[in-house]
């Protein structure tokens, strides 16, 4: 089937072989599981970097830079986050700038280099951001009753010839990127353990770059199947980017934590506290955030810890042989 020009352009960039992508991932992540990079310390054992004891090492920028995980079109989310960033400016007394990142790798590198101060990292890249970039997550979106999370779904399109997960064998399956939990790591572990399906051996893996690309690829019948986060799928349906009848769900996983929000470890502690206050005092009612994220059930920010809420993700990474050293 003819591939849309946007997907064709993307494919020319991201259609590396599975082994090349996996090799790059393992090169980035080679080292002891859960070991913080050598530049960080964790004296309290909470698995995230401690703030420097030397105030000379604190960051106190005149402009705070915020990034949202590169799940969908950055231009859409710049507007969605505009009211929130205005609120953060009022709370912190700082100018706040939205930084539209194009990839998880660019987002992590920006924070590691000190150019990104506040961010939402997606589920799968959270551990890498914590261990390699000094990310300290403290908040997550949740519903009004405090419940949270999303599921990984394997999807296909009607008439694809794939009626159950086993039918993926011999064909192609679209992943998003090697750092994504629901777009790569979780489905890889689940397909192997529950269905004895292994990429390259049993099916050809392709990489779309983002969840919306995978979803559009299936809806437009360019990919026979894909592994995606169903929170993104629901939002795209709500915005009528795709129609519900364009996709069929083959499998839904257990619930995973969603995007984790936090700051870089060496942000001036007083300023970091104000950033936290901005998250937990933001008035959701009538906001653009509410309008966008109500489609996937979120209605507030709740406090979280990396040690507790990302335990299941660290277990999935361990099952996949993933570690987090950045050298």
From TrEMBL:
<dbReference type="GO" id="GO:0055085">
    <property type="term" value="P:transmembrane transport"/>
</dbReference>
<keyword id="KW-0732">Signal</keyword>
<dbReference type="GO" id="GO:0043190">
    <property type="term" value="C:ATP-binding cassette (ABC) transporter complex"/>
</dbReference>
<dbReference type="Pfam" id="PF12974">
    <property type="entry name" value="Phosphonate-bd"/>
</dbReference>
<protein>
    <submittedName>
        <fullName>Phosphonate ABC transporter substrate-binding protein</fullName>
    </submittedName>
</protein>
<dbReference type="InterPro" id="IPR005770">
    <property type="entry name" value="PhnD"/>
</dbReference>
<comment type="similarity">
    <text>Belongs to the phosphate/phosphite/phosphonate binding protein family.</text>
</comment>
């Amino acid at each position: 089937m003819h591939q849309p020009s946007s997907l064709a352009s993307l494919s020319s960039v991201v259609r590396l072989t599975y082994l090349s992508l996996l090799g790059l991932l393992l090169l980035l992540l080679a080292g002891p599981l859960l070991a913080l990079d050598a530049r960080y310390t964790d004296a309290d054992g909470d698995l995230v970097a401690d703030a420097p004891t030397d105030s000379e090492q604190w960051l106190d920028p005149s402009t705070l830079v915020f990034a949202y995980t590169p799940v969908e079109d950055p231009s859409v989310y710049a507007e969605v986050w505009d009211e929130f960033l205005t609120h953060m400016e009022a709370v912190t007394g700082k100018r706040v700038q939205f930084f539209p990142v194009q990839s998880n790798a660019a987002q992590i590198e920006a924070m590691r280099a000190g150019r990104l101060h506040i961010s939402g990292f997606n589920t799968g890249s959270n551990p890498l951001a914590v261990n390699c970039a000094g990310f300290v997550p403290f908040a997550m979106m949740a519903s009004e009753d405090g419940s949270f999370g999303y599921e990984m779904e394997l999807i296909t399109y009607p008439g694809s010839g794939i009626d159950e997960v086993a039918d993926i064998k011999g064909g192609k399956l679209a992943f998003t990127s090697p750092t994504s939990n629901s777009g790569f790591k979780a489905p890889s572990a689940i397909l192997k353990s529950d269905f004895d399906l292994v990429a390259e051996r049993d099916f050809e893996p392709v990489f779309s770059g983002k969840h919306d690309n995978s979803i559009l690829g299936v809806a437009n019948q360019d990919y026979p199947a894909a592994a995606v986060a169903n929170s993104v799928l629901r939002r795209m349906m709500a915005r009528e980017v795709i129609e519900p009848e364009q996709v069929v769900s083959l499998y839904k996983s257990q619930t995973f934590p969603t995007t984790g929000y936090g700051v870089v470890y060496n942000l001036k502690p007083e300023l970091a506290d104000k950033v936290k206050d901005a998250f937990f005092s933001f008035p959701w009612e009538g906001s653009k955030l509410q309008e966008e994220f109500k489609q996937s059930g979120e209605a507030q920010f709740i406090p979280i810890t990396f040690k507790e809420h990302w335990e299941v993700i660290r277990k999935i990474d361990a099952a996949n042989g993933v570690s987090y050293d950045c050298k």
